[in-house]
């Protein structure tokens, strides 16, 4: 049984999708813990109500990024996970932290990377006149919102879309592709080949 630790900062809808699918579909894995960097992260209550261990490492309590990263890693490692999943975790993680979890740290970002790393992705896509947007699940590397791409979803931009409409449409696809990517990882179906990720069953790595 593989152990997954999920890091959140807020409502945790991706965490819910992953933990729910893991339990319903009988993955060879369990969500060992949900850790937040904010004590008021909404997803903590959902996890606790389902008997999942929760912890808070409040970034405000640390004077340096290194000290926060070190305590976060210590907390994560106490659950001995094979996989660490960033699900709306809104803190930049330092290179030493990222290297410690190399090859077992996944993130989801609400854009078609490498387009629009960083914040306000949907606003920026609308301003750029994009006709399609989406979300990306990727292995984390020290460069922000970069790293080998596991799966992407592609979503049309419709006439009249605003940031909220676009974000809601993309989020629905996040709840499909992130659980699938995590399932592939725990089933040993992902192979990292340099900057590329191969799905060993040949399954499609894009949701259209
Ligand atoms: C999701 O849209 C996720 O892609 C995004 O935050 C949201 C979290 O929602 N992540 C990032 O922007 C990371 N750069 P959730 O808490 O309901 O899963």
Could you give a quick summary of the protein structure above?
The protein is built from 6 helices and 10 strands; from the N terminus they run βαβαβαβαβαββαβββ. The protein has helices spanning 13-25, 43-49, 65-77, 95-100, 121-127, 163-186, and strands at residues 2-8, 29-36, 53-56, 83-86, 105-109, 132-139, 149-156, 190-193, 196-199, 206-207.
Description:
Strand 8 (190-193) and strand 9 (196-199) form a beta hairpin. The chain folds into two domains: 1-101, Formyl transferase, N-terminal domain (Rossmann fold); 108-208, 3-Layer(aba) Sandwich (Rossmann fold). The mean pLDDT is 97. The protein has an eight-stranded mixed sheet with strand order 3-2-1-4-5-6-7-10, with helices on one face. A two-stranded antiparallel sheet has the order 8-9. The chain has six helices and ten strands, in the order βαβαβαβαβαββαβββ. Helices cover 34% and strands 26% of the residues. It is globular and about 45 Å long. The protein is an alpha/beta fold. It binds glycinamide ribonucleotide (GAR). Residues 8, 10-14, 87-88, 108-110, 135, 145, 171, 174 line the site of glycinamide ribonucleotide. Glycinamide ribonucleotide (GAR) binds at residues 8, 10-14, 87-88, 108-110, 135, 145, 171, 174.
């Amino acid at each position: 049984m593989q152990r997954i630790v999920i890091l959140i900062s807020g409502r945790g809808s991706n965490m819910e999708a992953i933990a729910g699918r893991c339990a319903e579909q009988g993955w060879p894995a369990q969500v060992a813990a949900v850790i937040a960097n904010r004590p008021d992260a909404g997803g903590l209550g959902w996890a606790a109500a389902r008997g999942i261990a929760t912890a808070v490492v409040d970034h405000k309590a640390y004077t340096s990024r290194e000290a926060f990263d070190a305590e976060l890693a210590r907390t994560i490692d106490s659950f001995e996970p094979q996989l660490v999943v960033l699900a709306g975790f809104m803190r930049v993680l330092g290179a030493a932290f990222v290297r410690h979890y190399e090859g077992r740290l996944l993130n989801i970002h609400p854009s078609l990377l490498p387009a629009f790393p960083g914040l306000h992705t949907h606003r920026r896509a609308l301003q750029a006149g994009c006709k399609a947007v989406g979300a990306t699940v990727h292995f984390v590397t020290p460069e922000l919102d970069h790293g080998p791409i596991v799966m992407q979803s592609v979503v049309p931009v419709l006439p009249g879309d605003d940031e909220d409409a676009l974000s809601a449409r993309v989020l629905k696809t996040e709840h499909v592709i992130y659980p699938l990517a995590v399932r592939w990882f725990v089933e040993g179906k992902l192979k990292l080949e340099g900057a590329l990720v191969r799905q060993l069953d040949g399954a499609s790595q894009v949701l259209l």
